[in-house]
Each structure stands twice: as C-alpha cells, then as structure tokens.
Amino acid sequence: MKDLEDFWRTSKWLHQAKLLIERLEKYPSNTSIGLILRHSKRYEPSFSDENQNMDLTEEGKQIARLFGTKLPHSREIVIFYSEVDRCRETAEQIHRGFMERNGKSVIKGECKILRGIGLNPNVFMEELKKYSLLDVIVRWSAGLYPEEHWPTIKSYCKRAANIIWPYLQKLEQNTLAIFVTHDLHSIVLRYGWFGFPLDSRGIDYLGGYAFSIGKNEITVLDYGDIKKAEIPYYWKK
Predict the structure, then answer these.
(1) Smallest Cα–Cα separation from 123: which of 100, 106, 101, 148?
(2) Which SS3 state, helix, strand or coil, does residue 151 take?
(3) With a threshold of 0.70, does the pTM exceed it?
(4) Residue 210 to residues 136, 141, 143: CA-CA distances in angstroms?
(5) What's the distance, CA 3 to chain centroid?
(6) How many of the other CB atoms lie within 10 Å of CB of 106?
(7) How many folded domains does the chain comprise?
(8) CA distance 68 to 100
(9) How far apart are CA 27 and CA 10, in angstroms?
(10) Residue 152 Cα to chain centre, angstroms
(11) In a structure prediction context, what are the per-residue pLDDT tens digits for the chain, which is 237 residues long?
(12) Rounded to whole angstroms, how far apart are CA atoms 87 and 153?
C-alpha cells in the first residue's frame, strides 16, 4: 500500500481503531490498562469454500504495524494473543510498529482463554449460516442452546476474568496490556464483564475496548466513550 496514512484516515473499517488510538491518551498515566482487541483484517472466504484461508491480508498486516506506531508511547506495552495465526500475526505487527517508534514492547505469547470458550465449532458454524453473529449471541445468552455444546456466557466470562484481571492488577502503572482475540470473544466479554447491551456496530478489525479496574468500579473506553461499570459480584472481595 503506497500511502498507509491516507488509508488510515479514510478507511471505514478503521473507524473503531482510530477512536481507540485517539482516546487512549485520555487515561491517567498512573493506571494500568487492559485492551481487548480484535485481530487485523483477514481474508473472508464464504462458508462454501473448502479450504478457508482466514489469515491476515497484506493490508491487514501493514495496518496492524501502523496501529502499533500510533499507540501511546508514554506507556510500556505487553501483548498476548489467541493461538490462531491471524491473532499472532496481528500481535507481531503491532509489536514491530511500536518498537519502530522506540517504544518498549514485549510479546508474552499465547493466552488460551482468548480462544477457548469451549463451543463446539461445527455447531457454532451451522448457527452462523442461519443467524447473524449478534443474533447467535442473543440466543446463546437466552439459554436456547444445549450446554454440552455451548458453555454459558457467564461461565466463560468468569473464567476469562479470573485469568486476565489478576494479571492487570499486578502490572506496573502506565502499562498497556493488549489481548488480541476474535470478534465473538470481544463481543461476549464486553457483554458479560460490563453488562453493556449488545451493539449492532459489533467489533471491527483492530476494534475493541480498553478498561482499568478500580477499587469500586471498572472504567471502560467503549466506542470512544468513557463509561463506568460495576464490578461483578464474583469479583468483589
């Protein structure tokens, strides 16, 4: 791509990514922040394709690197990712971009909870042929699927909190911990952690939300707005 900066300014699918970059600067420097981030742009094969290539496109790789150059350089970053290649590649490109601007970045590696909901993948894909992703999540949260194939949203969100939140609380101040995952996981954790309604905008490539855990509440950067959420009952000490 000849002019990445122009593409960054004009591309519609980067709107959520731009909001993240713009508003992350608003967080006080004495806080550690978690960032749940969807991977960068991938190939989008149809359901009928036998060999589905869902790796990052070349455009997705370059924009992930550019995203890394735009993260707040006043912070140190650590990056975890889902074991799927497109998430690992996104993490590597963000790391590369941040380092190019003399930022301090460490790739920590795979974090299994960023993929491991426990859904039966074949059953899930069949549902996506009938319903939109948000409609599947609504049906799932309503208990319309058998738990042997669909562990409850609450159980997944609680497991994820028990892994990610203690790590954030132990981080040094002014650290940004990035967790590169998928649209499904990003949407479900937003819904299950903070109680925010499902949003028709979904989570686009390199979109997501940042959050910091306080003593009595969670501060969330959500679609460009700073919001407050109650700490879930299972996390209250």
Answers:
(1) 148
(2) coil
(3) yes
(4) 24, 23, 28
(5) 26
(6) 11
(7) 1
(8) 9
(9) 26
(10) 20
(11) 458 899 999 999 999 999 999 999 888 888 899 999 999 999 886 555 454 568 999 999 999 999 999 999 899 999 999 999 999 999 999 999 999 999 999 999 999 999 989 888 889 989 999 999 999 999 999 999 998 889 999 999 999 999 999 999 999 889 999 999 999 999 999 999 999 999 999 999 999 999 999 988 999 999 999 999 999 998 865
(12) 22
- Phi and psi, residue 102, nearest 5°: 65, 30
Q: 77 in helix, strand or coil?
A: strand
- Token reading at 138: 């609504």
Q: Which two tokens stand for residue 236?
A: 């209250």
Closest CA to 140 of 162, 164, 157, 159: 157
* Domain, as residue range, for 181: 4-44+53-235
For residue 108, which of 214, 34, 200, 191 has the smallest C-alpha distance?
Answer: 34
Supply the CATH number for residue 185's domain: 3.40.50.1240
| Bridge partners, residue 85, by sequence | none
CA distance 90 to 178: 11
